[in-house]
Design brief:
Elements: E1 2-4, H1 8-30, E2 33-37, H2 44-51, E3 60-64, E4 66-68, H3 78-85, H4 87-91, E5 95-97, H5 106-117, E6 124-127, H6 142-150, E7 155-159, E8 168-172, H7 174-177, E9 183-188, H8 190-197, E10 216-221
Parallel strand pairs: 1-10, 2-3, 2-6, 3-5, 6-9, 9-10
Antiparallel strand pairs: 4-8, 7-8
Length: 222
Amino acid sequence: MIRAFATRDAAMQAAAERIAEALKNAISERGQAFAALSGGTTPAPAYERLAAMPLDWSRVTFLVVDERFVPLSDEASNEALLRRALAPALAAGANVLPLYSDGVSLDEAAARADALYADKPIDIALVGMGGDGHTASWFPSAPVLEAALASSQSVIAVNAPGAYGTPERLTLTHAAMVRADAVILLIIGAEKRALLEDRARARLPVDELFDLPAPIETFWAP
C-alpha cells in the first residue's frame, strides 16, 4: 500500500516524524536507537527536519544504507550528505557509523564496515528507489543483486558498472535489512510510482524489500 502525499514537503515531514517515532520508542525500550538511512538528495529534507526534532540524540546512532567508495570530501559521498543534513543532531550527540574507510581497498573497507555493523539492530530504515528499480546498492545486474541477497554478512562490496558516482560501492545486505523493525520506502514522481505498481514487469531489486519480515511503509509524493 502506498501512502500518498500532496506535496514533497508533506512526504518529507511525515518521513521525519515516522523515523523520530521509531527512535523515541527504541530509546524508551532499550536506552538507545539505530536508524539506517540512504543518501541522495531526495531524502535530505526529511533528515533536516528529523535533526531539528527534540530527541535524546546522544542515544541515537545512524547507519549508512549504502555508500560510494569515495572519501567524505567527494560530492558523491552519502555519509557526507547525511552529516550535513543531520548536523544539529550530530552536534547534540548523535553518531554516524561509516561504511567507507580511507586508505584501504574496497574489500578491506567492506570487512571493516561489516565488523562494525554486524551486531547493530535497526529500529527503522529509510531507503529509496532508482529509475531502474534498484534500492540500496542492490542493482539489477545479476552478480551484484545475487551477492547482496545471498550474503550472510551485514555489509559487502559490490561493483555496479554505470552507477552514479563510482561503480565501487559498499552496501547493507538483505541479511542486514532483515534486522529492521520498520522500513520506509520513499519515492518521488509519477514514473517511479508507475514502475513500483507495474505488475506486468520483471522482478526488480526493490521487490526484495517486500519479502522482509518488517512491513514496508511506502511514502510517495508527485
